[in-house]
Design goal:
358 residues, alpha/beta, Aspartate Aminotransferase, domain 2, 11 helices, 15% strand, globular
């Protein structure tokens, strides 16, 4: 049976050769390739600064700290995301305040944000989930009205855009280059900003608080990216457009042919980059039955995310019991199908055939 994976690292000889060149150079830590990766990524997002770090969670934590988020502060975010979003807030000493989501995009519902603002609120942290950007016009307007920072969790949304602006170009952006991301370095992350002061703080925090070597002006961490990772990222960036074209083709094919589940929504003005192709299993069907059927047919599926963040044991001691009806409902219904660029047309046809048997 032909097995279809939910995702695969898209690795070619070019990535392998790039890694070997770094190995042979003897310069493995943060160096010239990291600097070049930062320069090219900043241009990709249309911003002045890009700061490479060791992973996406570190990017979130550094971005929050560089925007002076700390003990006693509140950060408004979504409960429907990977746990790293909330963990990064907690790492700073701040408290995550959850706002429910839209049932079509699965992103934070901007109409519910204002009701969650208190005198302790310092920032809004929207997550561009699965590759579809949030309603940034509305979020930006709220942030401006209340004097709040915007920290974008764009970890799944490299090159996504909303009305002509790319993810990571509002306030301070954060990205992940985990092995299955649309642009990957194995592990790795990036922070983007147009703010010179925030950029300088980010660079210091990632490297022990140093502006000048061995002169420590603030408390910092070792969150640097290696040139080995950056070398992979540079090759991936050269192929990003072709990989995006293939993801869009795959998503369009699935949209056109799937009949038994609710296919994804793309709102006007948004360019979805299809990190995940996430459907809703509703109309009385049991999601577990769908998972079992697809797996038996040799097709991997993913559930991102079966337990909303506000229901996780590790978070409830910090926030108490809160009710997010839409997020909780979506957590019971969503299912992600393979959409990665290594799928063949035969694979796509099999996915459609099996999901339409339900």
């Amino acid at each position: 049976m032909n097995h279809i994976a939910i995702s695969k690292p898209n690795i070619t000889d070019a990535e392998k050769n790039a890694v070997m060149e770094v190995m042979e150079s003897g310069f493995l830590a943060q160096g010239p390739r990291t600097a070049l990766f930062e320069e090219k990524f900043a241009k990709l997002c249309g911003v002045k600064h890009a700061i490479a770090v060791s992973n996406g969670t570190c990017a979130l934590q550094i971005a929050l700290l560089a925007n002076d988020i700390g003990f006693g502060d509140e950060v408004i975010t979504t409960p429907f995301t990977f746990m790293a979003t909330a963990n990064a807030i907690l790492f700073t000493g701040a408290k995550p305040v959850f706002v429910d989501i839209e049932s079509d995009t699965f992103n934070i519902d901007p109409e519910k944000i204002e009701a969650a603002i208190t005198p302790k609120t310092k920032a809004i942290l929207p997550v561009h989930l699965y590759g579809h950007m949030c309603d940034m016009d509305r979020i930006q307007a709220i942030a401006d009205q209340y004097g709040l920072k915007i920290i974008e969790d764009a970890c799944q949304s490299v090159k996504a855009y909303y009305k002509g602006k790319y993810a990571g170009s509002y306030g301070t952006g954060t990205f992940s280059f985990y092995a299955t991301k649309n642009l990957m370095t194995g592990e790795g992350g990036m922070i983007t900003t147009n703010d010179d002061v925030v950029a300088e703080k980010c660079r210091m925090i990632r490297s022990h608080g140093m502006k000048q070597r061995y002169y420590h002006d603030m408390v910092g961490y070792n969150f640097r990216m290696m040139d080995l990772q950056a070398a992979i990222g540079l090759v991936q960036m050269d192929r990003l457009e072709s990989m995006m074209v293939r993801r869009r083709f795959n998503a369009q094919y699935l949209n056109q042919h799937i009949e038994t589940v609710t296919t994804p929504t793309v709102k006007k003005g948004c360019e979805h980059v299809w990190h995940q192709y996430t459907v809703k299993v509703n109309s009385g069907r049991k999601r577990d039955d769908v998972v079992k059927h697809m797996n038996e047919a040799g097709i991997d599926v993913g559930i991102y995310y079966p337990v909303p963040v506000h229901k996780q044991k590790s978070i409830q001691g910090h926030i108490g019991n809160v009710y997010m009806p839409v997020a909780e409902k979506m957590a019971m219904e969503v299912l992600s199908l393979p959409v990665h660029p290594l799928l063949s047309e035969e694979d796509l046809d099999k996915i459609v055939t099996e999901i339409n048997k339900l």
